[in-house]
From TrEMBL:
Domain HTH cro/C1-type stretches: 41-88
Pfam families: HTH_31, MLTR_LBD
Name the UniProt record assigns to this protein: XRE family transcriptional regulator
GO MF annotation list: DNA binding
SMART domains, alphabetized: HTH_XRE
InterPro entries: Cro/C1-type_HTH, Lambda_DNA-bd_dom_sf, MLTR_LBD
Domain of life: Bacteria
Length: 276
């Protein structure tokens, strides 16, 4: 990546192409005489027909000719392409049709949230912004992952740790899934914060990693509010953990992440880890 901010025209074009090409024509009940095709997915004229938009308009969008589709057109495209909710929001962001909260991205923890993170002990908890920068953490989270206080601020980033930290990168039993989900979140954040040069620089740094670059090019978009991670902790052994991501109404650029163990063996392992 060479630009310092999001080139929304080019990204909108690429996103529409990839979403169109992944669709299975058989699922749309197209006549058999129209199914002979050399390229994957739906044709442009088929998307145009489904969305009620001219084929010329679809062509110009996919060729990045600088169009800014209206909210109605974006909605029609999202429906025609059968976009998932996070993908739909991403498309609206790229078209600059979704209202924004405004303000600068959070770089420090809101004091009430920092206190809440500490008060959540013994549950491991941390506070992040949309870039995955870690703004606050409690002792249990530091014990579970890494002592964040010993890291330079630039390395206190969940994606950086997963990609580059020599210990943390080996924690996850299903590392590719964890990275894939993180990238899908970063792509959504990238479109929602097109002027955040720090985020764009971070993504440019990450794309030097071959694994990140491969998954980033797939253009998956998803914001996970909860999930599961299986960790191979060097001291506690295998941990089966679930997490919740909460967004405070008054600080919507900050995300509170809380881990908890569901199975008894993982709970016991965490207890031992935190009391040693």
């Amino acid at each position: 990546m060479t630009t310092r901010t999001v080139d929304t025209t080019q990204e909108l074009a690429a996103f529409l192409r990839t979403r169109r090409e992944r669709l299975d024509p058989d699922e749309f009940g197209l006549p058999a005489r129209r199914r002979s095709r050399r390229t994957p997915g739906l044709r442009r004229e088929e998307v145009a027909e489904l969305a009620g938009i001219s084929i010329d308009y679809i062509v110009r969008l996919e060729q990045a000719r600088g169009l800014r589709p209206s909210a109605d057109v974006v909605e029609a495209l999202a429906s025609a392409l059968r976009l998932a909710p996070d993908e739909r929001a991403y498309l609206f962001d790229l078209a600059r049709q979704r209202p924004r909260n405004g303000g600068r991205p959070a770089t420090i923890a809101a004091p009430p949230l920092a206190r809440l993170v500490a008060d959540l002990s013994p549950l491991p908890a941390m506070l992040m912004n949309h870039r995955y920068d870690i703004l606050a953490w409690n002792g249990e989270m530091a014990r579970l992952l890494v002592d964040f206080a010993t890291l330079p601020p630039a390395q206190r980033n969940a994606m950086w740790l997963c990609l580059k930290h020599p210990e943390v990168r080996e924690f996850y039993a299903d590392r590719e899934r964890v990275i894939r989900e993180g990238i899908a979140h970063l792509r959504a954040a990238w479109a929602a914060h097109p002027d955040d040069e720090a985020l764009t620089d971070l993504i440019a740094e990450f794309t030097a990693d071959r694994e990140f670059a491969r998954l980033w090019a797939e253009r998956d978009v998803k914001v996970n509010g909860r999930g599961r991670k299986v960790m191979r902790h060097p001291e506690a052994g295998v941990l089966d953990l679930h997490y919740e991501v909460l967004t405070p109404l008054q600080d919507q650029d900050q995300r509170l992440v809380i881990y908890h163990a569901m199975a008894e063996d993982s709970r016991s392992a965490l207890d031992r880890l935190f009391t040693e």
